[in-house]
Amino acid sequence: MRKSVQTFRTVALVLLAILFVVSPLVASRVVASETLTIHAFVPERTTVSFSATGELIVSSNAPGTLVSILPTADATLLSVTAR
What we know:
The chain is of the alpha+beta class. 33% of the residues lie in helices and 27% in strands.
């Protein structure tokens, strides 16, 4: 009985050794590539603010943002168009 247990251990160790040698060789041949496509919507945002010195600060991610300043006799008109 003792000899069969020892034989089983020897066979198991040999199989494990073969598995450790063969598995990296097989795994190295596997080449896979995948394409990941992300669809997203970024909402347009336009912010108009003034600095401490009174400068106009416009921040927008919309490419068609138009800012115009029209001084009049008693006021200054600010027009912002973001499309």
